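Hello again, I could really use a second opinion on something today. For a while now I've been wondering how a particular protein folds. Please have a think about how the structure follows from the sequence. Here's the protein in full, and shout if anything looks odd to you:

***
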Amino acid sequence: MASIGDVGERALVKKIIGMIRPCGGIGPGDDAAVFEAGGAVAASTDRVSFDRHFPKGMSFEQFGWTAAAVNFSDLAAMGARPFGLLASMAMPRDMDEESLYDMASGMDECANLCGARILGGDTKFGDGSITCTALGSMGGRSPLLRSGASPGEMVAVTGRLGGAAAAFAAIEAGAEDECDMGPLYAPSPRIGEGEILSASGLATSCMDLSDGLANAAESVCAASHVGMEIEMGFIPESPYVEAMAEVGLDRREALLRWGGDYELMFTFKKEGLSALSDSGLDDFSIIGMVTNGDGAYICDGGDRARIGDARY
């Protein structure tokens, strides 16, 4: 029997979804579940750990912030407005108590930024990890799903990509003073952008980019049964990607597969471009088109290749 490491996270999740009973609504397979509780509520859960999500130079407060941000970003991808966070902290017995308080403070600061409050949680001795569950209200808006893209539509992203990868490269090169470390240490979920996309009714699919553009593109293609053609030259990049390329950062990997960018990738109909520009969504870039194909492809000059999966 194969180990879970050999099978991989995406294949494991797919098999689990096939094993469990349907939830009767929007559940496993999207960024968050949506259920009725006096109105549509979105819920998402995720875990961060010291061994995978605590790069050199990060403070305990920033680690707590990140634990909250990864969950709020999933709500943003659904178009939900966060209102609460539950946090379960499993920390080493010999940890200084102030470090624990700093993590709690970081989670609360991120929740405040996103318009939410910490509603409760749990503390246990453990390996050094935080598991959060974020809750948000749809407020009458239709949730954004991964499964609505259709051939002929445009593919777009918010913001700039590669900032987290550039910051990590700066750490490895000892060049932190030459790079913006914020995207890696304290990422900002695109809550407002998600709400605008949902309220406008213009976005046909959406997913956050915390696991990388390649992962998002392939996931939306699989859920929507479509293909994508993404132009490498159209991908908006952090200004620090080029700077860190001089110390070894692979630009293609940073933009496609590294992850850690809490932006949104979404699709929309071409005729909706003017309305989307007028909706209040200011910072977005069209990077490609949805096709009748199978899977996502990256076009770079005269080269065209399957985009593949992310590494994050």
